[in-house]
Structures are given as C-alpha cells and as structure tokens.
Amino acid sequence: MKASGKTGPRARGPRGAAVVVLPLVVYGLFAARRISAGIGYQMDEALYVESAVYVLADGRGDPPFAHDPAFFLAAGGRRWPIMVFPYVGAFKAWVALPLFAALGTGAAVARSSGALLGALGIAGFVRLLAEEASPAAALVTGLALAIQPGYLDLTVFDHGGTSVWMAAMGLLAFALARFLRRRSPRSAFLLGVAAGLGVWARVNFVWLLAAAALAAAIVYGRRARPAARELAAAAAGGLLGALPLLVYEAASHGGTLTVMETLGRLPAASVGARARLSLLAELMISSRQLRPIWGGPGTRAWEVALGGALLAAACAGAFLPGRGGDARLVSVRRALAWTALLLSGILAFSRLPVGQHHMAAVLPPGLAALSILAAEAWPRSPAARALAAGAGAALAAVWLSWDARIDRGLRETGGRGFWSSASFDAARALEERSIPPAKLKLLDWGFQNPFYVVSGGRIHGTELFWGATAERSARGRTWGDEIGEGGAFLEWDNQPPSASVRAFRDALAQAPAAAARETVFRDRSGAPAIRLVEISPAR
After folding, report:
1. How far apart are the C-alpha atoms of 403 and 414, rounded to whole Å?
2. Based on CB atoms within 10 Å of each CB, which residue in 32, 105, 389, 526 is the most buried?
3. What's the rounded Cα separation, in Å, for the pair 345 and 157?
4. Which helix (H) or strand (E) holds 83?
5. pLDDT under 50 in the chain at which residues?
6. How would you label 95-118 residue by residue, b for 16+ Cβ within 10 Å and e otherwise?
C-alpha cells in the first residue's frame, strides 16, 4: 500500500470510530460467550501466561514449571520473562500480568488476555483498511473476523499463540497506517518497532512480513520502495522491537535455530501441501483443531468445498483487474490478495510443522480481499449488489450456525479430555488439601502448568512421567519407593493410561499394605475425568 498524502478514503470522526468499534463490540460479545462456558484450562494455553503468574507470585528462584533459564532476564533480584518458547516471546504474559494483578488469576482472566489480543488484531487491521481502502470494506472485514468461528476459537482458547500473532498484526497495521499518512523517519521507526515486536512475539511472523513486502513490491513497484532515511529508521526500530529475542539468542547461543531444526525433523513437518491447503480451506469456515474441546462433528464436505472456493476467490483477487473503478481500491485489494496467496504458499510448503493455529494468519488479508471485491461490485448494478449481499449473508449464516453449534457443545460438555471442567474441581480440592510440591506427584502430562495458573501459583507438583520407565519414575526412584513415601498421585481418567500410570498402578497392586484413598472428579456428563490417589507413607 502506498502513501497517498491527504487523498483517499480516510475514516475520520464518529463514523470512522464506529467502523472500528462495532466489530470490536461484536467480537467481545462472542468471545465473552465462549469464555463464560467454563471450559477446563488446557496445558498449552497455560504455557503462554504462566510466567506472568510466576512474576506475581514471587519472581525469585527457579520457576516450578519446565523452562529454559534463558527465557528469563535477571534484574533487580528478580527474573523477568522474555520468552515462553525458543520461537515465541513472552508477549501474552506481559498482557496477562496487569489483568492477573487487577482481577486475579484464573482461566477466564487468562482467556480474556487472548481475547484482548484478538481484538487488537481486528482493531489495527480494520483501521488500516478504513484509511487505505474503504470504510465499508473495513467494517465488513471486521465483522467477518468478529464472528468467524476459527478466529474466535483460536484466539480465545489460544493453545498455539494465534492471539499473539493477531495482536502483532494489529500493531503492525496501526503503525503502517501511520507511516502511510506521514512518511516520516519517526513513523518509519515505529513501523520497524512494530515489525520487530511481531518477530519477538512469534518468530514465524517473518512469514507475514515477507509476504506483505513482496505483495507491495508486486502491486506498487518502485512506489513501495522506502526512502533511505525511512529504511534506516525502520531498521533501527526493528532491532529495538526484537531486542528481547536478540537477548535470548545471545544467552541461548542461537536457541531458536536449534529448535527450528528439531521441529523440521518431526513427522508433522512432512505433511504435504495438498493436505495443508485442505486444512486451510476448512479453516475459512471453521477450525477443526479445537473441536475436540467439545467432541464436535467434522466439517462437512460441502463446507470444505465452500472454504476452498473462498480461499481461491481471495487469492484470485491478486490478478483481477479493476473495471473502471477506484484504482486505489483495486491496488489495495490486489496487495491483500497477494499477501493471502503468498502466505498460503508459505504455509503449504514450509518445512516446519504447520497447523490451523498458524493458518489463521491468512484470514485477515483473505477476508479483506473478498470484502473489497464486494465493495467494487456494489456500485455496478442492482444485480451485483444483490449477489454481493446474498453471498455475504449466506456466508455469515454458515459461520453463525457453527458459532451456535460450538456454544451449545461447550455448555453441554464443559469441555472434554484435557479441557474437562473437572480440572477446576480437582484444583480446588488440591488447594484445600495444601499438598506440598514434593508430595503432589503428577503421573500425566497436562496438570502442572494449568493448575499453576488457575491457583495463582499455589498449586504445583513433581512430574514423574518425563522419561519414566516401567521400573522407575522420572526422579530415578522405583515406583515402589514413590508409593512407600506416600503422597497424592494425580492422573487423567479420561485418557488411555500412560506408561507412567500403568507402572504406578502395577506397583500399587503389588503393595497391598499401602493405605490409598481415591477421589474421582467427573465432567458434566458424569463421566470420570481425573483421578486423585492419596497414599499415606509406609511405616
């Protein structure tokens, strides 16, 4: 998108504000509805905010959860988080920190931090569209993102950092809008800061930066080339924005690259482009990735086909000429469509594992390109208006039908598997018992981090399953010794028994003298979800 001085469809005043605020209100209502369903808090969700709980709890000493020491920066006698993974910064933790301080820790507050980040993504993107394209197209795009089931699910139940990506995109969009208005070194510096923050927030944010830069070069040619002083200012800003990541890289001796090489060898990295594009087409309608939360049905074949048609139409916008319309609007549409097309290609052919939580990056530019195509068609004829309105209404109906189905499933089940709301009952019981960490023995993955978050750091235990064998726990002790020492052993009762659970049960069966008391926590259907086995020490 090129600078346009004082010309163009600037969205100003009350109407301009409404273009941004209305989608945010709608998104907020839908997000609040999902949060209020009371779904259990899952392990991967907790990873993004647990360091905020650590800072509030004390911030001194070793965090009780698994971590790389380089994830924290020591200053003032405390440890401050800068990363949560070698490729994900502590962006969300710092957003959650003031929320936890003001409202207390818990799943609802943690998920609200994801919703705030998702809202920031919508706000920035809509503002950019309203200023550089069309307020009408901006409003339609914002409303589309606000009700799109995949965008909602992946930002609220954020187990893959989607909300972080969207917030980084929103900040970049705000900064780009400012830069295009002013074309000054200062605005270029702020644009660089936003880009650098995005890369710190998620290293693969470089995919969006690369796709958008190449799209601008294709559509605008030399007009997209920044002046030397703008480029220098943007580079300086980028270094400042990415400074936490650079600090981590220095401390870890290039930890991000090492992990990327490891991820590239995982089986998920070898999934073919055709399968990935099918997942992306499905995401245009709804996300299957989080449907296990409530055990929902698969996406129907016609819905996947519809999603594929939407994706194809959005990408085709890169090549469609304008028919005597607003040349500026056509250029913005082509730039967005090229961005969606290039991002889709990167996601399809990347040598890294890619899931729908990554593919959500295509939703904003793709839906925006479709909205602008509709805006271009609108003034041509009554038939064109009817077609655009009918297609938009039909698509909204499909999305809303999924939203209603998801809402019903969430409220009826309270979450299944690792998302079972029984985890809240278990956390309350553990907090009432005040079990010391050495005596709270976790036999399964998925307890430590979410319990730490929902309890405000009061509940954490000893994980016995990492590298455990049939003979010995993760601590190198025999299972008989673990049982003889006594403690509270926690396991999932709604999952196939893990190797550590089987070893524990076998050892317990061979220790008839052990005084064991079992408590089963059940989900909303009454099915067992979590089992707590309390054993008194052997005498």
Report:
1. 16
2. 105
3. 26
4. strand 83-85
5. 1-7
6. bbbebbeeeebbbbbbbbbbbbbb
